[in-house]
Amino acid sequence: MAGRYELGPVIGVGSSAVVRRGRDLRDGGPVAVKMFHPGSSAQDRRQQQQEIRALSRLDHPGLVGLHDGGTEDGRPFVVTDLVEGPTLAERIKDGPMPAEEVRRIAAELADALAHVHAGGIVHRDVKPANVLLGDGSRARLADFGISRALDGTVSTEAGCVIGTAAYLAPEQARGEEVGPSADVYALGLVLLEALTGRREYPGHAVESATARLHRRPLVPDGLPAGMTALLRSMTDDDPARRPGAATVAELLAPPAREPHRSGRHRRYAGDVPTTGRHRRSRFLAATALLLVTAGGGVVVALGPGPHADPRSPAPVAGTLPPATP
């Protein structure tokens, strides 16, 4: 494909794309090739190109890296790192995970999200299926298919809820404008599920999305590794009261380990620089389409709501003890 990639077996199938194992013939390295179904509208292509320019700024070990993209036989494609191993969703099927393992994964994902937010992007679909555990060396966040640029160049219709219903932030479920704090909320639900083995908001899409508008997540008292206070703060109904991803990473990082930095972060939700500082020189294709989750999120029209300001500062609730050896 594209005179460069040798395609192997199919390793994933979704409503929007097929993912195949591949090999880069230039260096022999393994890659994942996601081939989208043809038929995108001109508006879709413009939005995807706008977002891909923003995503090209991201370069972090906690993200699945994008290598290349283009069109082959009328089908758009993207080439990414190949991460072999289970997803967090598959791991949770075995039941609650050890607290220190969850804490490590949480620190890694929060650090990656801090970099994403500093680059001017909101992921908007943080969920266990989008967390790749690979060989266990580091958790990696994938699938930026419905991400949004913070500069406002990419937008969705008011009242249109985009994301996976079980992990939507309340403001997301109401169809309001969302900022980085929506990703922090979703990460809180993901971590709660990993610790308890139970999805907090089950059910079909509308039922799940609206449930959090009637009750806050039930975070048990006395969760191990000091996670109770932090998870309650991360899943606060008010976006301005949630800690920023950089703060979460700092609180969870083991002593003497400094999180990966990609710019200066203040210690409250929604505070991100206006311009990204990191660009991927490898990802140059102007016609490349945005990496869209093969599993697909949900789109639920629930009606518009008032626009909350995700940039309002607020103190962080609770502190964490250092990780036990």
Structure report:
- The chain is of the alpha+beta class.
- The protein contains 8 helices and 11 strands.
- The strands form 4 sheets. It has a 5-stranded antiparallel β-sheet, with no helix packed on it. Strands 6-9 form a two-stranded antiparallel sheet. A two-stranded antiparallel sheet has the order 7-8.
- A hairpin with a 2-residue loop joins strand 4 and strand 5.
- Helix 3 packs antiparallel against helix 8 (245-252) and helix 5 (180-196) packs across helix 7.
- The termini are far apart.
- Sequence of secondary-structure elements: EEEHEEHHEEEEEHHHHHE
Do you know the CATH topology of the largest domain? Transferase(Phosphotransferase), domain 1
Strand portion, in percent? Answer: 15-25%
For CATH, the homologous superfamily of the largest domain is named as Transferase(Phosphotransferase) domain 1
- Average pLDDT works out at 75
Shape descriptor reads globular
Spans where pLDDT lies below 50 across 5 or more residues: 151-160, 262-325
Counted up, domains total 2
- N-to-C terminal Cα separation, in Å? 48 Å
Number of strands: 11
Rg is: 19 Å
Q: How many DSSP helices?
A: 8
Secondary-structure arrangement, i.e. CATH architecture of the largest domain: Orthogonal Bundle
Strand order of the largest sheet: 1-2-3-5-4
CATH class of the largest domain: Mainly Alpha
Helix- and strand-based class?
alpha+beta
* Biggest pleated sheet: 5 strands, antiparallel
